[in-house]
Amino acid sequence: xxxxxxSFGTIDDNRVIVFDTTLRDGEQSPGFSMNLEEKxxxxxxxxxxxxxxxxxxFPIASQGxxxxxxxxxERFAKDGPVVCGLSRSAPGDILRAAxxxxxxxxxxxxxxxxxxxxxxxxxxRMSRDEVLEAIQKSVELARNHVADVEWSAxxxxxxxxxxxxxxxxxxxxxxxxxxxxxxxVGYAVPEDLARIFRMLRERVPGADGVIxxxxxxxxxxxxxxxxxxxxxxxxRQIEATINGxxxxxxxxxxxxxxxxxxxxxxxxxxSTGIITQNILKTSRLLATITGFDVQPNKAxxxxxxxxxxxxxxxxxxxxxxxxYEIMTPESxxxxxxxxxxxxxxxxxAFRDKLATLGYTLGDNQLNDAxxxxxxxxxxxxxxxxxxxxxxxxxEVVRIKDRVKLVGLTVATGMGTRPIASVALEVxxxxxxxxxxxxxxVDAAFNAVQQVVPHRAELKLYAxxxxxGGTDAQARVTVRLEEDGKMVDGQGADTDxxxxxxxxxxxALNKLLAKRDRTAPPEMMRAG
Length: 527
Fold this sequence. Notes:
- Catalyzes the condensation of the acetyl group of acetyl-CoA with 3-methyl-2-oxobutanoate (2-ketoisovalerate) to form 3-carboxy-3-hydroxy-4-methylpentanoate (2-isopropylmalate).
- The protein is 38% helix and 20% strand.
- With 527 residues, it is α/β, with parallel strands linked by helices.
- The strands form five sheets. The protein has an eight-stranded parallel barrel, surrounded by seven helices. Strands 13-14-15 form a three-stranded antiparallel β-sheet. Strands 16-17-18 form a three-stranded antiparallel β-sheet.
- It starts with a strand and ends in a 12-residue tail after the last helix.
């Protein structure tokens, strides 16, 4: 049965709305925060991916969050996805969200309130009648500002069924156009979500006039399974994030849900607007921005997702790829031929390869990236797609950084204490630092800290190879924590010490940006 929606018009029953919350719920992960420039780059990539709704942030959380949502709304002032701002049920939250999303061509306010007895008693300290009244007033206020209002029952999967029906009925009567039932703590199993959505559609008056939405967390590793079960039971909006990032164990992975729907049309006959060929580049962009790589065996986007090492598997794939591949690598953006460029390749070939990999750079960015490519080609025998992605992301994402690594020299040897000398550019000013350390990397980090003093502790230092061979680029991840704020940084280079220092400087830049971000006291996060 078709449904009429203020943002999407007539929606066929087999169409699934994709609500991406990478920029809101995903960014709540420790160490995953983004600055404005990074959020705008990610917003552009999500729009190119074909998402329907972009939850751009939590405008009341801070002035920085408000400005991010506002800037994204301005980005899509003429066309693009629905731009959504999250709010609690408080009037101030709703008005702030309305102001933030106002420039967008299509606007949504997403307001939420806890409905489980546990949350009402411990967190809200409100009675059921008070919660019902707050739902009515908050949705009505939001509806006065935008035509598209989503209401969420935080901890909905653990809410008393009869009371959940009353809450949903109240929200619909107040003007909500989308009803979201989150599994906020990742407690539910697929049968639970299927039962809840069927119950609401059967028992709640007006349920046939709204879109039901599934927002599942992955604490038990069931977020994607729960999302698919919700679709079977009548939900027609899925809320997910790129790479499955989010609070605690994360959210349902957008790429996994999208490819499950595409691959298993025989049992999940629903469609989305996702351009699946853009999945990999969007995943890689997020990993570079956040400084957090996906694990190698991650479904769809992990580097081993289409790798075959077993002799039996290799033999089968060589005869017929469908023996061991249920989808093609190209369908999600993997290239079939990764060895294409070398030190004799020109700018035109490099630009063409970037376009193939999904990058469009301005002249200055292209010049910087091409210079790094030629330097890399001089040091490596073979340059692979993964090498190009690593160096371009490392160059482009860092372009707005306050601190930039200009030069590094390390003197070390067996039986001697390493000494590192760094040349940095801090807010446009050249600065030098010299320091020793227990190892070459420690010395380089100490030299950077001499120039940019901080109290951050090193919580993680990880090195992995971008490709194979002794001349492979190293991709390093560094995690720093200062006053409870955690950030991850990444860097890539054929020299592991340089890659490590790039990652350290990247993390410092994120830490500097995060120092100014503050949230109001007792801020409650949605499910």
